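TL;DR need structure tokens for one chain.
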Amino acid sequence: MVYLFFATGTEEIEALGTADIIRRAGLDLQIVSITGELIVTGAHGIRVEADALLEDVDFFDADMLIFPGGLPGATNLADCSDLNERLRDHVYLGRPVAAICAAPLVLGRLGLLDGKRATCYPGFEGELRGASCTGALVEVDGQFITGKGPAAVFEFGYAIVERLKDKATADALRQGMLWSEV
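>> reply
TL;DR here they are.
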């Protein structure tokens, strides 16, 4: 199971675009609200219905955790102590994590990117404690996938699919979604 976390103020395109690509790949994904409510309002006033609440999710079956950006969504994710504790355990077990835009700050504030290459929305580099910030559209280093911002959502999603399935599936999605024509 892939879990994508949604907080008040999350960047909707990063959350929903990523979720769409992952589900097109045939992977099981749940959007998880950290607010205690299933209906959550994103950064641009779009109301999203989550599949589950954080308190009802058992991370035991988590294949990957995904953190979309946006403000104050990313800081709301970073301020969620229950989520941070579960994230640390997930990383300790060597399982993959993906974060895009401002959300790599969740990982950076916990010191999880120490010695890793990462990317983020310009201006958030200082939040990625110990990381080598590359400015790339998408960066993959070990168990971490980071994306630069909203324009990176397609390549970010395809990188996740490549990690969880394979390159052939990611390439087929690129072609089927006409991304190869961009």
